[in-house]
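User: Continuing from earlier, I have the next pair ready.

Assistant: Great, send them over.

User: Here they are, in order.

Assistant: Folding the first of the pair now:
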Amino acid sequence: MDRIASRYQLVIWSIFGAAVAMVLVSKAIRLGWFDPRPQLKLNDQPALLFFNRDRGCECELLVYRSAEAQLAAWRQEDRFEVRIIALNLERRRDLVRAYQVVRAPTLLLLDGSGQTVWRQDEVITDREPFDLRELERQIIALDLKTQ
């Protein structure tokens, strides 16, 4: 009788494990974990990587949305036409690892070869997470170095 009960438990646990695995794989597919990752192409031009998230608690979402709004309102001439590349922290784990990003929102200023020359990963305020004036100074300094 014990053998039948233990075999029954094994079958139940196997079914449960398979169901959990199916749910996790389904979620991973839905989140794009298996999608091909396009190469980061800078074309020897500086770029600004903007790592953000679209999920979190209410207070985190306020900061994420504020960061997006702050960058959207940032005039192109103030950023000297440096291209902004918006990346989802959860979907681009390859770049998260490569640039050692640990939280969102994070800004990285890259030179044309992809080297980080400036980063901001600490939020200044919930409404204006980034120090854009300092970033503008860094862009000017980078431009002077490359001339």
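And the other member of the pair:
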Amino acid sequence: MQLSCKNKFYICKCNFVAIKNMKKSRNTLAKTKISDLLTQSKNALSHSEIHEFLDGFCDRVTIYRVLDRLIEEDFIHKIVTIDGVVKYAACHDCSTVKHHHNHIHFNCEQCSAVTCIEDVEPSFKLPERYKVHNVNFTVSGICPNCI
């Protein structure tokens, strides 16, 4: 459908909404493989670990795009380890009604595994006029597999 309009920045709202919804719900084979990998993993995985597990199935840029989309869709969450490495983990206890990531992440100092400990929810109190958008609690030590 072509619209004639003097304003070159005119956007048809009905098409914009359709494109936005289509982009959000789009499933690709790469997205399916990455989400399955993260769902089945007991530990959080880094981008390079995901790339290694996929064994050349898709390139690094595609993995980053899929990870960004899965975060945007609240399917996974991002964890920064004590070494500054970004890892990704699937949401297990979240629902469409209640989505939260306020749990502890355990980072093993020996094997570098990062595990979500979802039954422990840390609490803290901030001064007035602070608004929290994201919480990232990482506890380091030795995991049960390395003791």
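Worth noting for the second one:
Strands lie at 45-46, 76-80, 86-90, 104-108, 114-117, 137-141. The first helix runs from residue 13 to 25.
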